[in-house]
Amino acid sequence: MHYRRWLAQQDVVTRLESAAGERMLVDFAGDTVPVTDPDTGEVWQAQVFVSVLGASGYLYAEATRSQDLASCSWPCECRLSGIPGRALFSTALTSIT
User: How is the chain split into domains, by residue range?
Assistant: First the structure.
């Protein structure tokens, strides 16, 4: 009982330390956002792709049409000026579908 009371008061945070260029953490946000095509007026629900460099905490985000790797990885790598040693996906199925 004492342990559960103590645990309930803790702010549990996972900290991953990495060397520069070692890893990039990748995920999609749970919510979608509406995007309007300025040419056609079509409204579509965008998936929000987010990545962060492990050492610096530099954040990259973009709206994509789907959660496939091809629609988000190359713009991200170009914007970050390179490819990290490893990309850690929170959902492995997203990265291979």
Answer: 2-96
